[in-house]
Specification:
The protein is mostly helical. It has one domain (about 5-250). Helices cover about 60% and strands about 0% of the residues. It has nine helices and two strands. Strands 1-2 form a two-stranded antiparallel sheet. α1 packs parallel to α9. The longest helix is centred in the N-terminal third of the chain and has 25 residues, at about 15-35. The radius of gyration is 19 Å and the shape is globular. Mean pLDDT is about 90; it is low at about 1-10.
């Protein structure tokens, strides 16, 4: 039976459900990644080009919803600092189980929350529709930053100078050293702008003007998963590695 949120300050149940579905998809993707690169078991469909698009859609949905949630928080700087510190813990622990993560989704979300918290007074004065549109444009402009350039497809392209790649410490922005590969890599370009678009969309969700279906509960179990995404993210890598180790290394 569907539940309604308690007005403007109530929970937006469908966002929890979407976030829950997104984190489950992320767990599946990381499991397939671990199978291929840690245990030598190839699952071709998970590494086709079209599946990378699906991966980005679910990751983008998770990040977008995290931006929406910033509208509901009273201390985004503290939340962001905690999220970033958890990301750093993962940076030091994950190499024991899987490929190195130097700026994963927790790092990016933590920095994004802190930036939003520091500048929220100014950002919240920007009309939501204007902020959302500008964020979308900048997300599109910076989408290929990890590929070494800014631009809109064939219409405009500006490649980063070689010196930018050689600096070696600009990877949080999306500028990687040459021939480097990191798993679970979510640089600020373009993902911060996806997060920021969500924060502007959060205005409509918080004031109750989003479509009514978002305020109803459709799958309580999925909503529960969505409310536990942080713990799922932290625990799933060692659990996946441990399970696959039992199966493939005995």
């Amino acid at each position: 039976m569907a539940e309604k949120s308690a007005g403007k300050s109530g929970r937006v149940y469908m966002l929890d459900e979407i976030r829950g579905f997104a984190i489950l998809c992320m767990v599946v993707y990381h499991a397939m990644f671990s199978l291929k690169y840690e245990f030598g078991v190839n699952v071709p469909i998970f590494f086709d080009d079209w599946f990378n698009i699906i991966r980005d859609i679910f990751a983008g949905a998770f990040i977008f919803i995290s931006g929406i949630m910033c509208r509901y928080s009273h201390d985004n700087v503290r939340r962001g600092a905690k999220c970033f510190l958890l990301g750093m813990v993962i940076t030091f622990i994950v190499p024991f189980f899987s490929s190195q993560i130097v700026f994963g989704i927790l790092h990016m979300l933590g920095v994004s929350m802190m930036i939003y918290g520091l500048f929220s007074r100014g950002l919240e004065k920007i009309p939501a529709v204007v902020g959302f549109a500008l964020s979308a444009v900048f997300a599109a402009l910076t989408w290929n930053a990890p590929n070494g350039f800014l631009g809109f497809g064939g219409a405009f392209k500006w490649e980063f100078p070689a010196a930018a790649h050689e600096v070696g410490v600009l990877y949080p922005l999306g500028i990687l050293p040459y021939e480097y590969f990191y798993s679970d890599y979510f640089p600020l370009m373009p993902w911060f702008f996806v997060f920021l678009a969500g924060s502007f969309a959060g205005y409509w969700f918080k004031n109750g003007s989003a479509p009514k279906m978002f305020y109803n509960s459709h799958a309580r179990w999925l909503g529960a998963v969505g409310r536990a995404t942080l713990w799922i993210y932290i625990l799933h890598v060692p659990l996946i590695y441990g399970l696959f180790s039992l199966i493939f290394r005995n």
